[in-house]
Amino acid sequence: MRQRSTTLRQRSTTMRQRSTTMRQRSTTMRQKIHSPETKIHNTETNIHSPETKIHSPETKIHSLETKIHNPDCVCLQVEDISIQFATEGPEKTREECCPGRPLISFSVRPSVKLRLTNPQPQNGLFSHILSVGEGDTVAKLAARLARENKLINDAGSIELWRYKDVKLGPRQFPVYGKPTSGAVLIEKEAVFHADVDSNSLDISLNGSKYPVGPAVIYIVK
Asked: What residues form the membrane-spanning segments (predicted)?
């Protein structure tokens, strides 16, 4: 009987110790949750957070530098540049322009819209409408088309074909297997001439002029 009572006392003591340990753990957890130290650390974190915001513009600057290396992100689509003396410009240019501070003036030259259609099957190359100005060449139009269509990697692989019948040609369905049927290749030496008043385009080649019409065919080799 004495041994049983001793065993029961030991068990009760063990249970009490376990309950005390559990109480201490719960108290410790409550202190961690409600302790002012945690709040102070949270405040310090909030105080240091503006430093992260301060450094964030550097990240934006680096991203901007990365974009600058990509010409498609900052391209102004400037094709022709002419440098003139200030005396040759208008009155505002003569007044504001001074040595070391040139005045840049952007302008859009008169142009005529031209539709470029690709009759090649199963390539994902869609039609595009480009502005054609006086003196444009096949190389310039090919460069604009490659800039508009990201599927074209090489502008030199583009060929332009004009319709023999500028009125009926764009309305006909292309012949399968013969995408350039009823069209004539526009040589790279040809020069486009735009008549804004009549909204028409012509090309000149070796002293001869040929009408272009509202649309042409482009082939990607």
From this structure: none
